[in-house]
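The following record pairs a protein chain with its ligand, nicotinamide-adenine-dinucleotide.
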Amino acid sequence: MDIAIVGTGYVGLVSGACFAEMGVNVTCVDVDASKISRLQLGEIPIYEPGLDIMVKQNLEAGRLHFTTDLSYCIDNVELVFSAVGTPPDEDGSADLKYVFEVARTFAQNIKKYTVLVTKSTVPVGTAKKVKAVIYEELKKRGVDIPFDVASNPEFLKEGNALKDFMNPDRIVIGVENEHARNLMDKLYKPFVQNNYQVLFMDIPSAEMTKYAANSMLATRISFMNDIANLCERVGANVDMVRYGIGTDARIGAKFLYSGCGYGGSCFPKDVRALIQTGRENGYEMCVIEAVEKVNTRQKSVIFDKLFNIFDKKLKGRSVALWGLAFKPETDDMREATALVVIDKLIKAGVKVSVYDPVAIDECKRRIGNVVTYCKNMYETVLDADALVLVTEWEQFHFPDWKRVKKLMKGNVVIDGRNIYRRKDLEKEGIICYGIGK
Ligand code: NAD
C-alpha cells in the first residue's frame, strides 16, 4: 500500500516511520526544504527515542521517502495524511492555515480518487471546511475528481511516540462512507490483527474525541495541582492523597501527579481551542476554563516559592535549573514551564544557569543567551543559592547530594515534580520544597 504524509514534524515523521516499519510504502512531504534534505540523509531533526534507527532502516529498505513536492508521489498513493501543525491563534482557537494549505495542495495535484486524512488536531467542523477548500480548488482546475476526507487524530506521547504508535490504546477513525472506511481498514489491518482497538465513527465525533481526551488528561493534572496547593496550606501531603484516591478503581492511579504545571505542544493549545470552540457555539466550557486557569497559576509556583523563601529579595541571587524540555525524553520546549520560570527569574534580577540532556539547543534558539548553559547537571549548581528541578529526566532522580551541597552556595532545592525524598536531602543539609507537601 502507498501513502503520503504531509508535515514531517513529531507526528508526521513518527507516523511515517511506523507505517513504513509495518511494510507500507510511505512518502513524507514537508515545505521545510532543509528538514527534508537532512531526512533524505537519514538525519533526524528532532529528539525522539528510537526514531533515528527506524527512519534509517526504512530509508535503506526503500519504504520511506522524503520530498518537498506532493506531486512526486500523488499518482501512486491511496491516502494522503495531513500532519501539519495547528498552533494557537491569538484568540486561542486552532490556526488552520497549514491544514487548508495542505487541502489546496491535495486538490491541485490529485488525478484519481484519493482520501485526505487529517491527523493534526483540529476543531470539530474542520473536515467540512477542508472539503470546501478542495471543491474550490478542483473547480478552479475545471475537473471533477472524486475524493473523500477522513479524520484520524493521533494520541502518541512525545518521548514514547514509537511505542505509542505501534501499541496504541485505540485508533480513532472518522469517516463519511464505506469507500474511505475500506481504505483505512486496509491500512490499519495489522493493528486489528494484533488486537488493538480500531474505533470507526463519524468525523465530528472523531475530531471531538481528540480534544476531549487531551482536556480530560489536563483536567486530572490541574485538579491534582489544586489539591496539592491546598494540601500545602492545611498540612496534608499530596503524595498520600494520590495513593488514597488512585487506588479507587473508579479513579485509577494514572495522571494524578501534581507538579509545576503542564506544557507541551498539545495540552495548553488544545484546552484553549476547546474553550474557543465552546464560545463560538455559545457555550461556556466552565470546567476546561478552570483547568487552564489553574495551570497558568501553577507555572508560577516555583517562582513564588523562591520569592517567599528568599524573603522577596531575589535580585543578585543565582538559581540553577535542571530540565528545560516540557517533559523528559523530548527536546520540545513548546509552552514549557521552564520558560516561565526563567522569564520570571530573569525579570527579578536573578542569574540563571541551566542544564537539560537534549533541549539546550532548542532553548538557545528560543531565548538566546539570557541564561548560562551548562554541560552537566553539577556545573549548573556551582555557587547557586537555589536549585530547581523542572523536568524529571531519569538522570536527575539520584543526584550525588553531597556533591551538590558542596558546589552550591545556598541549601535550597525546589522539587517541581515531587521526585525527591526530603529526608535524603536533609541528611546533606539541604532543605527540599516539593509541591503539595
Ligand atoms: P510540528 O510543528 O512538529 O510539525 C509540523 C510540520 O508540518 C513542520 O515540519 C512544518 O514544516 C510542516 N508543514 C507546515 N505546513 C506545511 C505544508 N503546507 N506542507 C507541508 N508541510 C508543512 O507539529 P507536530 O507536533 O508534529 O503536530 C502536528 C499536529 O499533530 C498538530 O495538530 C498537533 O496538535 C497534533 N499532535 C501532536 C502531538 C505531539 O505530541 N507533538 C501528539 C498528537 C497530536
